[in-house]
Amino acid sequence: QVQLVESGGGLVQAGGSLRLACAASGRTFSIYDMGWFRQVPGKERESVATITLSGDSTYYTDSVKGRFTISKDNAANTVYMHMDSLKPEDTAVYYCAARSVNSAQYNYWGQGTQVTVSS
C-alpha cells in the first residue's frame, strides 16, 4: 500500500501563488507516476498535472500550462506543484494521486486539499 499526504492548500487572491506538496509513504518503490487532480462540486475530477518518478516526463492540462509546474524529490518521495498566476477558476479541491507500475488507473489517492482563489 501507498499512503499520500497533501499539504499547502489555502486561500489566495487572483494572480497569487501557492505550492502544493504530496508526500508518499509505504510501498513507494511500486509507484510509476504521481499527479495532481482537482474537482469542483458538480463536475468530474480532472487531471491537472502528472510526472513520472523515473525520468522527467510531465503532463499538464491546457488550462494550467505556463502557470503550474510539477516537480519531484525522489529522495523525499514527494511531489510538488507550484501554482502561479492563479485564477478564480482554479478554485477546487486538489487531490494527489499515485499509480502503480502495473495499474492502468491511479490507484492511490490523498485526502484532498482546498485551494480557493478570490477575485
Task: Give a verbal description of the structure.
The protein has 119 residues and is mainly β. It contains no helices and 11 strands. It has strands at residues 2-7, 10-13, 18-26, 31-39, 46-52, 58-60, 68-73, 78-83, 92-100, 108-109, 113-118. It is globular, with a radius of gyration of 14 Å. The chain starts with a strand and ends with a strand.
Q: Keywords, please?
A:
119 residues, globular, four-stranded antiparallel beta sheet, seven-stranded mixed beta sheet, mainly beta
Number of helices: 0
* Global morphology: globular
The percent of residues in helical segments reads: under 10%
Structural class: mainly beta
Count of DSSP strands? 11
Summarize model confidence as the mean pLDDT: 96
Biggest sheet details: 7 strands, mixed
- Our Rg estimate from Cα atoms comes to 14 Å
Strand content: over 45%
Q: What is the chain-wise order of helices and strands? A: EEEEEEEEEEE
Terminal Cα span: 40 Å
Low-pLDDT residue spans: none
